[in-house]
Design a protein that fits this description.
50 residues; mainly beta; 3-stranded antiparallel beta sheet; 52% strand; elongated
């Protein structure tokens, strides 16, 4: 499973990160991408959970 973190976004007073994770579908075997915008501290949790 490949994963990567892309782009650091900055709004008024919050610092946010957009994380993109590539996930393999158990049914078809095709890969899909899951995207989320979160604080930098939560990125590792997002990338490690399935």
């Amino acid at each position: 499973m490949a994963k990567k973190t892309v782009a650091t976004l900055q709004t008024a007073s919050k610092r946010l990160t957009k994380a993109i994770k590539m996930v393999k579908s158990p049914k078809t075997g095709a890969y899909t991408f899951q995207e989320a915008i979160m604080s930098p501290e939560d990125v590792d949790t997002f990338l490690t959970k399935k």
